[in-house]
Specification:
Elements: H1 7-16, H2 21-39, E1 42-44, H3 47-59, E2 73-77, H4 104-111, E3 115-120, H5 149-157, E4 162-167, H6 173-179, E5 182-185, E6 205-210, H7 214-222, E7 238-242, H8 252-267, E8 271-275, H9 284-299, H10 301-307, H11 313-320, H12 327-348, E9 353-357, H13 377-381, E10 386-393, E11 399-405, H14 411-422, E12 427-428, H15 431-444
Helix pairs in contact: 2-3, 7-14, 8-15, 9-11, 9-12
Length: 445
């Protein structure tokens, strides 16, 4: 699908009668037939089912009632329920399982005229870093990230216009970075999770992929997100630069990308300053892991009882609490998260937006792991909106993204700021350059 076939363009063209929903589907199908055999991004795809949706949209006599997303092809992560496609969670027990109902987010998209195109590959239960079968469209030897592997890869390859994912750790933002597309993790609780396979009540969040940020603004309207200030220019923006607690795991090229972003934004007239996180954030990643362990024990108990030894040992260990987590330790983790959320809200109130790495670096080679999510857990646990901007290329020629973060429930601010920031940052980073800049950054720190 050509890059110009964005959700915004499709909706505009259908409203004006310049294109039909079937035209859009045919263009999408052409890309799928060429790219899907190698990428393996889809867990389920029935072209006739999708075409029937397009026909129904075209048959509508009143173009004005078709919905804001009329004809837009959407792929749905396979842990999110769909009434007319299996929801398999990439696990044997649910292979071919039909829920008979749409998740709330899918229902909303369908009511807005979207063509629910396919189910996209996820890691098992979207709760592990073990590799899925999907390959990165920029380099088939590399992972597209996870757990929203298929949705990110499909959008990057042009096999869908919008990708629906989830994030509990880094499952939306990291794949956006690895695949060179726009990624958006909305504020926790802003979009209903009804119909999503539960892992963590505290962290599970619906996420989106697109090739144009204007599509996210359209989605914000569809999901009726809160009004918020929307900056109109970079000049004068107060932008903070955050190096998260696990900064030591960030590759030199990504360190260079963040530093260059700060320089480019400063040159464009933004007021850019480094952000020093309070000491309480030193324990936030351990708290995130502890909360996932505590909530995962409950989430996968039924699977352990039903599947026994057939369930992957990673989930069985979680249910059995082989780590020996105590209630006191769990309570301490929740207290840490609560305190950090309050501190983060106060901190973000002093900026129009802050920027941080979307991943530790480029997508790693191999499919056994979906990559390191350590740049994302902080923001997921803080419940704040995150928008990953594509624009940098690392030494291996792979995409790298920069995250834009704002206060909780200011998603429209994050989207507007990200669009402005994207116009100022980006570029290729050579291995020699990233190593030199990383050494300078380390000595300065």
């Amino acid at each position: 699908m050509p890059d110009r076939l964005t959700a915004t363009a499709i909706a505009r063209d259908l409203a004006a009668g310049r294109r039909s929903a079937e035209d859009v589907f045919d263009a999408t199908l052409d890309v799928i037939q060429r790219r899907e055999p190698a990428l393996r991004a889809f867990a389920f795809f029935d072209p006739e089912l999708a075409r029937a949706q397009a026909w129904a949209i075209d048959a509508s006599a009143d173009r004005g009632t078709r919905g804001a997303l009329a004809g837009v092809p959407v792929t749905v992560k396979d842990v999110i329920a769909t009434k007319d496609m299996p929801t398999g969670h990439n696990t044997a027990r649910y292979a071919g399982a039909m829920t008979g109902v749409d998740a709330a987010c899918v229902d909303t998209l369908r009511q807005s005229g979207a063509v629910i195109l396919s189910k996209s590959v996820t890691t098992e239960f979207a709760a592990t870093q073990r590799g899925a079968m999907t390959r990165n469209p920029h380099d088939a030897a590399r992972t597209p990230g996870g757990s929203s592997s298929g949705s990110a890869a499909a959008v990057a390859a042009g096999m869908a216009t919008i990708g629906l994912g989830t994030q509990t750790g880094g499952s939306t933002i990291r794949p956006a970075s690895f695949n060179g597309v726009w990624g958006w993790k909305p504020s926790w609780g802003a979009i209903s999770r009804e119909g999503l396979k539960l892992y963590s009540l505290t962290c599970d969040t619906i996420g989106f992929y697109a090739r144009d940020p204007a599509d996210f603004t359209l989605l914000a309207d569809v999901f009726d997100l809160d009004p918020a200030p929307e900056p109109a220019q970079v000049r004068g923006l107060r932008i903070g630069v955050v190096r998260p607690p696990l900064w030591g795991q960030v590759a030199p090229a990504m360190r260079t990308a963040l530093a260059r972003s700060a320089e480019q934004l400063r040159a464009a007239g933004a007021e850019v300053s480094d952000v020093t996180l309070p000491e309480i954030f030193d324990g936030i990643d351990a708290a995130h892991a502890a909360i996932l362990l505590r909530e995962g024990r409950a989430a996968f108990l039924n699977e352990d009882r039903a599947q026994g030894a057939a369930l992957h040992p990673e989930f069985r260990a979680m249910v059995a609490n082989t780590a020996g987590q105590t209630p006191q330790e769990a309570r301490a983790a929740y207290r840490c998260a609560d305190a950090c959320r309050a501190a983060m809200d106060e901190l973000l109130a002093g900026y129009d937006a802050v920027i941080a790495p979307s991943a530790c670096g480029e997508a790693p080679v191999g499919l056994d792991s979906t990559g390191d999510p350590s740049m994302n857990g902080l923001w997921t646990l803080m419940s704040v909106p995150v928008v990953s901007i594509p624009g940098f290329t690392g030494p291996a020629g792979m995409p790298m993204g920069i995250s834009v973060i704002t206060r909780r429930f200011t998603d429209r601010t994050a989207l507007a700021a990200a669009r402005l920031i994207a116009g100022e940052i980006g570029g290729a980073i050579a291995a020699e350059e990233s190593a030199e800049d990383s050494a300078e950054a380390s000595s300065a720190a």
